[in-house]
Amino acid sequence: MKYLLKCCNRIVDVDNKPIWCIKCGEHNIDISEVTDKTLLPCPFCGGEAMEEGLNSVALHWYECEDCGASSGSADSLVEARKKWNGRK
Predict the structure, then answer these.
(1) Which of 11, 21, 77, 80 is such that its CA lies 20 to 30 A from the CA of 59?
(2) What is the pLDDT of residues 8-57, one digit of tens each?
(3) What sign for the dihedral angle of Cα 33, 34, 35, 41?
């Protein structure tokens, strides 16, 4: 199972729900389960992504509300989400 550690925006792949972060040393951390439908925070600033697009030409992408980072365009929102979540 994959979890997003909100203390440092890292994704960990572990068997049990983590209760502390080995990287930053935080205990009782907020976590969320990562699924195919999860939209991860911005890898650059940790901001929230917003959906963007041009419906007239079936062009979709996600963009950070804070720093303006973009996923790159795709033909569908599903592909755009994969691009957004796949960046490092």
Answers:
(1) 11
(2) 888 888 888 888 888 888 888 888 888 888 999 998 998 999 999 887 78
(3) positive
How far apart CA 42 and CA 48 sit, in angstroms, is 6
- pLDDT tens digits for range 62-80: 999 999 999 889 999 899 9
**DSSP line for 18-66:** -SB-TTT--BS--EEE--TT--PPPTTT-PPEEEEEEGGGTEEEEEETT
Q: Do you know the residue count of the chain? A: 88
Strands 2-5 and 49-54: unpaired
